[in-house]
Design a protein that fits this description.
Number of domains: 3
Strand content: 25-35%
CATH class of the largest domain: Mainly Alpha
Largest sheet: 7 strands, antiparallel
Structural class: alpha+beta
CATH superfamily of the largest domain: Transferase(Phosphotransferase) domain 1
Distance between the termini: 58 Å
CATH architecture of the largest domain: Orthogonal Bundle
Radius of gyration: 28 Å
Number of helices: 11
CATH topology of the largest domain: Transferase(Phosphotransferase), domain 1
Number of strands: 23
Length: 517
């Protein structure tokens, strides 16, 4: 018997009142429910009792309940009522790591702090004799109180297969921690595409190191990733245990003056979510300080710190030189403007013609005609994301719009698919420089992608379009300039996250598009 009989209003164990569905993953479904006895929200993960996965899920959940680390999502109950097998977990609010990294990589010190916390949680589980075995970005939740929650301990792996096993579960967890650290530093996933995260690049079959993917990654973290993921490592002996990962990150953070005492908002244990939502914590903030190059990074590497007073003195001296130089230049310009002959001219009698001032102007652009718009909803979508409304995005009216369907619980399409979008046909190959959008609601995650210049038909997968620009949190009106002009006939405006409609509902859309070239 399957889980179709469970719907809002269903009561399990005379206690858990089902409120709404959160996620469907293979044979299992997750629901938000209300615990009538303790008057609180919980998550109920349900399988049919007849499923071959049910016994493994219940066994893993019961063992996970013995792990008391506050950073691991607590298992409250595990029941088989003869019809359904279900696991009840605590309810926690926050953002999963895959959603956060969909907006870009984390600053280095925040990435190191986050993975150190996850490693500490998994270390607690190992001491209790239980490995996670599937540490992926959706298994880590960053809560509104700046804490970390690890979900799916044991059960994520049990739901893969009734006979799922790895040779060394603890080593597998250590390797997964390395993948998570790599993803936090680069917003790329080692081992292939994962949700909105593109696959980490490889060269000659070897994973590129984080510093080769993103400028400014500290050498210490780059080397640690290589020691965990390198096959074989190029930066030293392999790191194969969770405790080694945790110890290495702790050393890196301590050596750079970033400790629990100096940043309690990042390192504090998780507490229950009570009262209004707190302001966005520092741990969730992205690196908005502009591009980082060379050895510059959020972490000062050992031996590079220098004396702060010396740096301050040098900075003041540099400012003083700039001020004096500016005054001298103003004086000379002023004399020339009053008609006084510069010394060189008076001595030689040669009249020097001042070259005309020049300005650099961007080449003129003009709007490109859009011959048609088509909704794009490739697998795992069903291909019909309000397809009949697509032309409303190019009808010249700001009052009409193509909109997505409504998704629930998560802005990234309820975790059901990576995105949807519109394919805009320019009729022929054109050089595109800017795409201006009027969107429905904000913020919306947007990517601008272009089909190959030779394409006579639009690609049928997202990967067939080359990424030209991205705007993780676009407002209702946004102009996206491409880093380099692209020549294409087909432009894909790809939505990766949706604005809230209120409550736990999310929907977005495009009311108007202007493409310039």
């Amino acid at each position: 018997m399957d889980t179709d009989s469970i719907a809002p209003g269903t009561v399990l164990a005379d206690r858990y009142v089902i409120e709404d569905q959160l996620e469907e993953d293979g044979e299992s479904e997750s629901f938000r429910a209300h615990d009538k006895i303790l008057a609180r929200s919980v998550v109920v993960h349900v399988l049919s009792s007849a499923s071959p996965l049910a016994a493994g899920m219940l066994d893993a959940a019961k063992r996970a309940s013995r792990v008391t680390d506050p950073r691991i999502l607590q298992v409250l109950d595990a029941v088989d009522d003869g019809e359904h097998s279900y696991v009840v977990r605590e309810w926690v609010t926050g953002r999963s790591l895959d959603v956060v990294l969909g907006e870009g990589p984390l600053p280095a010190h925040r990435a190191a702090s986050l993975i150190a916390e996850v490693a500490a949680a998994i270390s607690s589980a190992h001491r209790a004799g239980l490995a996670h075995q599937r540490l992926s970005p959706d298994a880590v939740v960053l809560t509104a109180s700046s804490g970390v929650k690890v979900i799916g301990l044991g059960t994520f792996a049990a739901l893969r297969s009734a006979t799922f096993e790895v040779d060394d579960p603890e080593a597998a967890d250590a390797r997964d921690l390395g993948r998570l650290l790599y993803a936090c530093l680069t917003a790329r996933w080692p081992g292939g595409d994962w949700g909105d995260l593109a696959a980490a690049p490889t060269e000659h079959g070897r994973l590129l190191r984080p510093r080769q993917v993103r400028a400014g990654v500290p050498r210490s973290l780059d080397m640690l990733c290589d020691r965990i993921l390198g096959d074989p490592p190029r930066a030293g002996r392999p790191v194969t245990t969770v405790d080694e990962v945790r110890s290495s990150l702790s050393t890196i953070l301590t050596n750079n003056g970033f400790t629990e005492a100096s940043a309690p908002q990042l390192m504090a244990p998780v507490v229950a979510e009570v009262g209004p939502a707190a302001p966005p914590p520092a741990l969730l903030a992205l690196d908005n300080d502009g591009p980082v190059t060379g050895e510059q990074a959020a972490i000062t590497l050992p031996g590079q710190g220098g004396d702060s007073r010396t740096r301050h003195t040098l900075l003041l001296a540099a400012v003083a030189v700039l001020v004096v130089g500016g005054l001298l230049l103003a004086y000379l310009v002023g004399r020339h403007g009053l008609g006084q002959t510069p010394p060189a001219e008076a001595k030689t009698g040669v009249q020097h013609r001042t070259p005309p001032a020049t300005t650099t102007q961007s080449p003129a652009t003009h709007p490109l005609p859009i011959s048609s718009a088509t909704a794009f909803d490739p697998p795992p979508g069903n291909g019909v994301e309000n397809s009949g409304e697509a032309d409303l995005a190019i009808d010249g009216s700001k009052q009409t719009a193509w909109t997505t369907m409504t998704y629930y619980n998560y802005p990234n399409f309820g975790r059901l698919k990576p995105g949807v979008g519109l394919i805009l046909d320019l009729g022929r190959q054109q050089e595109v420089t800017t795409v201006t959008l009027r969107l429905v609601g904000e913020p919306t995650g947007v990517q601008v992608r272009a089909a190959p210049a030779s394409a006579a038909q639009p690609p049928d997968t997202t990967a067939g379009f080359r990424l030209a620009a991205t705007r993780p949190r676009a407002g209702t009106v946004t102009s996206i300039a491409l880093a380099k002009p692209v020549t294409t006939r087909f432009v894909l405006v790809w939505l990766t996250s949706l604005p809230s409609e209120g409550g736990n509902a999310y929907r977005g859309g495009i009311a108007d598009v202007t493409i310039r070239g």
